[in-house]
Design goal:
The protein has helices at residues 3-13, 45-53, 60-74, 142-154, 187-196, 219-235; strands at residues 19-24, 29-34, 39-44, 87-93, 108-110, 115-122, 127-129, 160-165, 168-173, 200-204, 211-216, 245-248, 251-254. The radius of gyration is 20 Å and the shape is globular. Strands 8-9-11-10-12-13 form a 6-stranded antiparallel beta sheet, with helices on both faces. Strands 4, 5, 6 and 7 form a 4-stranded antiparallel beta sheet that branches. With 264 residues, it is an alpha+beta fold. The chain starts with a helix and ends in a 10-residue tail after the last strand. A hairpin with a 4-residue loop joins strand 6 and strand 7. It is built from 6 helices and 13 strands.
Length: 264
């Protein structure tokens, strides 16, 4: 399907009273916004079309549902108290805004040179980023939110699919619950993967819906990891970083990998 046809299909299905749709030709994005609340969702069409062509989602209706759920969630402000089991951390790039569109400061922590940790309240098919203002009038502090979210992410399942290339093992975590990348904050998982590794443990967080571990035993492994991270980064609905990480001494260090060369 051509981009123009793909875009038209989505626009037709997203036409609603009270919604505006603006196409950015240069960026190949569609901005769908609720006129009343002046908030909305931006769709990056190139990665969506690539997923469509690879048959990674069943129909354009899945994209429509994603937008409907997202815009509807923006009309609601979930409460912190009473939703403790629904508070989770999410990984974002350091270029992700630290303020909401209405000017409120988001709750976040620094993570690595490439990533930040934000906090959300899960709402089923979507989640809402927690703003500092949402803590006002509650017994919750930033430290308490951090503690609760880390406890919750440790309780999530950790399904891993393994693949091997030239003696190097690659593990893909894709639970499809919106918190795949968030598992990188589970220190016990990192320690478990480090014990499994016979070579250098590396980690990739290309987008929010996947977490990749690699047990690298030769230079070919570094090349493959760099290629995988870049490919996944370009396909993600919420890209994080194309740079893989070396895991050593309990720390993640971003690493630029050149072809056929082991990083120093």
């Amino acid at each position: 399907m051509e981009m123009r046809q793909f875009r038209k299909e989505i626009e037709q299905r997203l036409t609603r009273d009270g919604w505006s749709i603006v196409y950015d030709h240069k960026e190949a994005t569609l901005r769908i916004e609720d006129k009343e609340i002046k908030k909305g969702v931006t769709l990056a069409l190139k990665p969506l079309l690539a997923k469509w062509e690879r048959k990674e989602f069943g129909s354009i209706e899945e994209v429509v549902r994603y937008v409907e759920v997202g815009v509807e969630a923006m009309k609601k402000t979930p409460k912190i108290e009473g939703n403790e089991k629904k508070i989770f951390p999410v990984i974002r790039s350091t270029s992700f805004p630290t303020e909401s569109n209405d000017g409120h400061t988001l709750l976040f922590d620094e993570h690595t040179a490439e990533t930040r940790i934000y906090y959300v309240v899960d709402q089923g098919e979507s989640y809402t980023l927690i703003k500092e203002a949402m803590l006002e009038g509650t017994s919750y502090t930033k430290e308490k939110i951090r503690e609760v979210s880390m406890f919750n992410v440790r309780s999530l399942p950790q399904p891993l699919n393994e693949d091997q290339v030239a003696g190097n093992r690659f593990f893909f975590l894709r639970a499809k619950d919106g918190y795949d990348a968030s598992r990188v904050l589970d220190q016990s998982l990192l320690e478990k993967m480090e014990k499994l590794a016979t070579g250098q443990l590396t980690v990739a967080i290309p987008h929010q819906d996947v977490l990749i571990f690699a047990d690298i035993v030769n230079e070919r492994g570094y090349d493959v990891l760099a290629q995988i991270a870049l490919q996944f980064f370009g396909e993600g609905r919420v890209p994080v970083t194309a740079l893989p990480f070396i895991y050593e001494n309990g720390e993640l260090e971003p690493t630029f990998i050149l072809a056929q060369r082991k990083p120093k």
